Amino acid sequence: MRRATRVLALLAGVLVLVVLLGGLVLWQAVRRPWPQTEGTLLVPGLQAPVEIIRDQYGVPHIYAQNEEDLFFAQGYVHAQDRLWQMDFQRRVGLGRLSEVLGEAALETDIFLRTVGINRSARQDLTVLTPETQTMLNAYAAGVNAFIETNRDRLPLEYTILRVDPQPWEPLHTLAWGKMMQWILNDSWGDDLLRSRLIEAVGEERAADLNPGYLADAPTILPEELAISLGTPRFEQVREALRLANVPFGGLQDGLGSNNWVVAPERSATGRPLLANDPHLQYGVPAIWYLMGLHAPGYEVVGATLPGAPGVIIGHNERIAWGVTNLAADVQDLYVERLNPQNPNEYEVNGEYVPFEIVREEISVKGQAEPVVIDVKISRHGPLINDVVEGLEAPVALKWLAASRPSTLINAIYSLNRARNWEEFTAALRWWDAPMQNFVYADVEGNIGYLGAGAVPIRAKGQRARAGARLD
Prior knowledge:
alpha+beta; Penicillin G acylase, beta-roll domain; disordered C terminus
C-alpha cells in the first residue's frame, strides 16, 4: 500500500513538472516575438542612425536624418508589432488566404480573385511617382530587414500554422490599399438590393422601403405598405436582403463616421479645433496604428495603417486633417448579352466580341494541385455570376477603382508634406478612391472641407433605372 502511495505521489510530481514545463514553453513561445523597445539594434540597410522613442502610451516616434531611413524604420517598426496582421492583410488582397488556412478560405479567395483585387493592385504599380516609389521601396526594405533578422522570433501564428513570412513588396502595400477601397465603396450591393426588392414587392413599394439619396425627408410608410412578420411579403423582402448580403432593414448598427472643424472665432482658445472619429470595424489587433514620423521636411503624427508607409489621418507642423467615408456610388452592374453560339463572346454595339479570360490559380494548403478558375472580363469588368448567389443573367461589375490604375498612394506622400490649403488640395487631386470627406485646419487659423475622390460620369444621369432587374 505504501509502495502504491509513493508511486502515485511520484506520478503526481511528474505531472506537475510536465505542466509547469509546458506552461513555461508556451509562455516563451508567446513572449518571444514581443518587440525590442530598448537598447540598440544593428540593422543592415540604413544610411544613418535612426532613433525610435516610444512614449508613455507605447506610441513610437521615429527620428531619422532622411526620408528613406524614415520609411525604412516605419516598415521595421510596423513589422515588429504587427507582422502577422500585415501578412494576413496582404493575403486577403491577393486572394491567397487558402495557402495558409486551407479549404476554409477558398470561397473568399475565389471571390476576391474574381473581382480582381490582385489584378487591380498590380496595375496601380504603373502610376507611382518617383517619390512614392522610393517611399514604398524603403518601407518594404524595412519590413524585410525585420523578417530576416528575427527568423527565430516570429509571431506565434507562424508557429501554429507552420508557415514562414514571404518578403514584403510594394505590391503588398497596394493590395491592402485596394482592399480598403473595396471595403469603403461597396455600392454594388445596394444595386442588388434595389433590384431584388423591386422583384419582391414592386417598384413603388421598393422605393418606399429603400428611398434614394435625394429624398428630402424621412419616409413614413403608409399602413397599407406595412410588412408584418411571417407574412409572404415579409419573407420575400428578407430573402431579397439575404441574397444581397444586407442585414434586414438595409442598415447596420454603429456605422457612420464623423469629423468636424471649428473656426478660431468660435473656439474658446481662439484657434481652430478639429476632431475625427472614423468608424471602421473592430478588430484584434486594431486596424489603426498610431505613430510619429520625424525627418527633415517630414514631420507628421497620427494614425497609420500597418502595411503602408506614411500617415493616413493626423497633423504635421502646419496643418491637420480628418477623414470620414463619403460612400459615393462608384460601382455599376451591367447585364451582358452572350453569343448563343459561343458563351465566351458578348455583344458590343451589335457585334459579338470575345471576353478577356484570366486564369487564376489558387494554392490550397493540404492539396497537391491548385484550384483553377477562369475569370471572364467584359469591357465593363469581370462577370460575378459564379461568386454572387441568385444571378441568372450574365452580370459584370464595373468599379472605378479597378477600371483604371489608382493613384491613392501618391496622395499619402504629398498629403503628409502639405503646409497650407493649396498644397493640401493639390495632394488630394491624387486621392481617387475611396471617396472621402476631408476636414482641414492650419496654424494660420484657416479651416476647410473637401470631398476627395473620383466618381463615374454616367451617360444617363444618376443611374440608368433604379432597380433594373439582374435575373
